[in-house]
Amino acid sequence: MTDLYAEVSSFLPMQLARQWMDAARGIVPEHQAMALATVDADAMPAVRMVLARGIDHRGVTFYTNATSDKGRALLATHRAAATIFHQPLGQQMRFVGPVVETDAGEADAYFASRPRGHQLGAWASEQSSPLEDRAVLVAAVARATERFGDGPIPRPPYWGGFRIEPTMVEFWRAQPDRLHDRVRCTNTTTGWHAERLQP
What is the CATH number of the domain that holds 91? Predict the structure, then answer.
């Protein structure tokens, strides 16, 4: 197996992150699953699973309801951290940095690619709000279904994309006896700097 430091040093961090994601497709169930950590305006942390819908030179992109708990936290602080763990491959990636909203065109294109049921759900769900009974949600889906009929479903104005633009990316690979390989890449004024970390 390639030495992790040598592997990291051969690529820009987000290029390698993209390669690891591509390699996991078809091997790792839900290979896009990502633990997203935020803090709210009071610095209270929260973490939840989301799906990484894009990894490229700009960062890691995911989509959500901007009025949800995570959406409000992201808009309040514009910071996040995330971890993608590919257990069958014994590999993990961490991303830390500022968060920006994707542009409307990018969010529209992704929303249009979603299954129709997911699109209707985005209109029906007041994400993170208390729900008196599941029947209320089912009724909201029925109203959205009637509203849009068989026509196209536009992206809700409160639903969109966020991108972590990492200033730190860490690559981790499992090794025997928990002597794991870790390499942290930090974006400095002179470019990316990689260093080994103790396990």
Answer: 2.30.110.10
